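Final report, Chapter 2: Outcomes

The project's central promise was a pipeline that accepts a single protein chain and returns its three-dimensional structure in a standardized token representation, suitable for archiving and comparison. That pipeline is now operational. To close this chapter, we reproduce one record exactly as it appears in the project archive, with the input sequence first and the structure output second.
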Amino acid sequence: MLSLARDYRILATVPKIKLREEEERSATFTPEQERAFLAVAPQPLRDVFLISQDSGLRPDEVMRMRWENVLWDKNLIFNPYGKTKKSRRHVPLSERVRDLLRVRAEGATSDWVFPSPRKKGAHMSYFSVAKDFTNTRTAAGLPEDLVLYSARHSFATDLLDRTGNLILVQKVLGHESPHTTQRYVHPELKGLAGVVNQRNVENTDKSTAQFTAQSGGQ
């Protein structure tokens, strides 16, 4: 807007605005936290959460899902929205998401997967489930640093942890740069302890072999 104002000569120059440093989200749902959340989550929050958790879609992208973009035969969901070309992408359709979508599809009269109950021809807004999320999080006894967006982070973290493929995660999340994805995911680094343990075993074996050799020589 400021650049446009300069082009129209409303402003002489565009002021430089220092943006607040973005705080990286770090919270992800553990399997135990996911089960606790789903046990008390009402609809449609429950379905929105599961779709984000299994596909990596942003909550607002989930709310804008249309039935025509559910590719049942390919186990994919197409997201046609976004500011960039990479935001428009295919994401996985898991079995549990397929099952919940089948239930929603029965008797559906709207093109939207989550139609607005108040405005005909529109989809539900993110804010319609935001309050339910806060109440559900409290009921499930979960920490406040978990937000609905954490479901997307959980998906990304687990996908990277299981595949080790940063480019694949970047593609599914719809990021322009892998640097964004690196800041975004939070791998558990669960394999590092095994590497250290293996090193220690190897060092112990070498020390034992050297001691045995020296003892035999004496």
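Archive annotation: The mean pLDDT is 86.
This record, like all others produced under the grant, will remain available to the consortium after the project formally closes.
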